[in-house]
Amino acid sequence: MTEFAQQTGLSSLSMPPRRYLWTDAFAVCNFLGLYQQTGDDSFKSLALALVGQVHECLGRYRQDDTRRGWISALSESEGRLHPTAGGLRIGKKMNERGPDDPFDQEMEWDRDGQYYHYLTKWMYALQCVGTVTAEKVYWRWARELAKKVHAGFVFPSDGGGPKYIHWKMSIDLSRPLVPSMGLHDPLEGLIVYSQLQAGKSENAKDSPQPDLSREIKELAAICTGMSWVTEDSLGVGGLLCNSLQLAQLMTRDRSGQDKLLLALLDDSLVGLESYLKMNTLQLPGQYRLAFREFGLSIGLYAVERLKGLLEKEADSFTESAALHARIEELMYYQSVGEQIEKFWQEEANREAETWLLHRDINMVMQATSLAPDGFLQAS
Questions:
Q1: Of the residues 51, 132, 149, 353, which has the maximum number of CB atoms within 10 A of its CB?
Q2: Which residues, other chains included, contact 266 with Cβ-Cβ below 8 Å and sequence gap of 6+?
Q3: How far apart are CA 261 and CA 248, in angstroms?
Q4: Assessment of whether the complete model's pTM goes beyond 0.85
């Protein structure tokens, strides 16, 4: 993480800032975890500096854009007080597709814009900072981001049913760039909004905070009846992390979401077993994407923590026997995470082109896998 801070311009003045929202969300949690484990204030300082740099870089229009200033269109002073009020850019190398440019599926992966699933990760990172530092401003920024993002990404469906989440929006949130919905986007939104709402202060002395009740209700409607099964390693790992986050939430608000939690674990198990049948973990490094595999190893650590949480907070769950059974089935695969870590700790495997092309995100996700409590427990 120290090397990441240097090479991306966070701790080195000689390097221009290189910010990418997904990677930086995990990095913030990693720095917080290192601070909590070591008591070294320098790690907390890096987490806070990273938050500030992300907002200054990704909360503003790009240098190669004709537009200037905060995406929110707020003044300089107001923008610094509300840096997430317009959303946050992804941080891709290429500018977004113009309104009159033809759609190119391959090129779209390299173009900027705003991703819903990156923004929910940043909301989570901000609430982790707020929890560790006890500074309420980070919670407020997360809620302001949730409010803006929901308004920008969630649209009515054509058939009059539950609303729909666009996967990718333009930098100013004025038009969809990829209208399809990410498989787990509504679930991740539902959980992080609910976490933010549960942490909402009722102290009359505190400044008013955005209420997310309507947004939570809309996401719950989208989630109804959905299958979460995926064969993607990062997707399976994310689903397992979502399961832990939902369980953590249940111990706080006694929401009785046992059926949803069971569904997440069931679908995780189906997806994991299907993924392992493809034998991609037997391939050499040049045919593998490390950050996606680390997503799975992080998720398997989440299963360990979920097991401990159920044993400690049994009264919070009405389906504890069924939940324990699913968790034991998932615990059988703990060695898979160890296998992933061992493979990528070999220096020769980190010389593969697929590692070097995605070095920043690979390093950060590897660090999260090796020390997962900053991400899994900080909130």
A1: 149
A2: 326
A3: 11
A4: yes
